[in-house]
Design goal:
The structure is a single chain. By secondary structure, this protein is α+β, with helices and mostly antiparallel strands. It contains eight helices and six strands; from the N terminus they run H-H-E-E-E-E-E-H-E-H-H-H-H-H. The chain has two domains: 142 residues, Jelly Rolls, CATH 2.60.120.10; 48 residues. 47% of the residues lie in helices and 26% in strands. A hairpin with a 2-residue loop joins strand 3 and strand 4. The radius of gyration is 18 Å and the shape is globular. It holds the Pfam family cNMP_binding.
């Protein structure tokens, strides 16, 4: 729970009363590698927080999986395009390794906004950060060559690159695994 509280304190200060309120609103879960927090077609009913573990977001298009994002320890996980309007998701969120994850339902998130002193500010700042990150990622897919996208991935996720299978990284960068191997070889030769 400390990691969750520290992450919230990245956005807002928390009193001990605020911390006690948050503790009553979240639920702790354990997931095993391969399980899904969310599957396409389901409505995302919670915001998750990763205490321990790693997840990937992906869509399945004509039988091919396209990885769009990763989250690691200390980060919030949610398909906001499903969660906010409570509409079916187009995205899958899969656990890549055994994980300990906290969840907070939409109703309890509303209580957090109301009962925690700067709860609404926390929600606004957190969602703004998600939005800006998504825009950067979309722009990169359209404007950056694959090698730059891979370097951006390494800069964004340096501590987890070794924990993610290469074919998921290649999918995230938007290339085939063989192309990623060539990029990695070129980068190794340059150093």
């Amino acid at each position: 729970m400390n990691r969750l509280l520290n992450s919230i304190q990245h956005y807002i200060p928390l009193s001990s009363a605020d911390e006690a309120i948050i503790a009553t609103l979240v639920r702790r879960h354990t997931f095993t590698k391969g399980e899904h927090l969310l599957q396409a077609g389901q409505v995302c009913k919670s915001v998750f927080f990763i205490e321990k573990g790693l997840v990937r977001y992906y869509t399945s298009i004509e039988g091919e999986e396209k990885t769009s994002y990763f989250n690691k320890e200390g980060e919030f996980v949610c398909d906001y395009a499903s969660f906010l309007p409570q509409k079916p998701s187009l995205t899958n969120i899969q656990v890549l390794e055994d994980a300990t994850i906290y969840s907070i339902s939409q109703a309890n998130m509303d209580l957090l906004y109301q009962q925690v002193e700067q709860g609404e500010r926390f929600g606004r700042l957190a969602i703004s950060e998600v939005f800006v990150s998504a825009i950067h990622q979309i722009n990169s897919l359209y404007t950056d060559p694959p090698e730059v996208r891979y370097q951006t991935f390494l800069a964004r996720f340096p501590e987890i690159a070794q924990r993610i299978p290469q074919y998921y990284i290649a999918s995230y960068v938007g290339i085939k695994p063989q192309s990623l191997s060539r990029i990695r070889k070129r980068m190794a030769q340059a150093h």
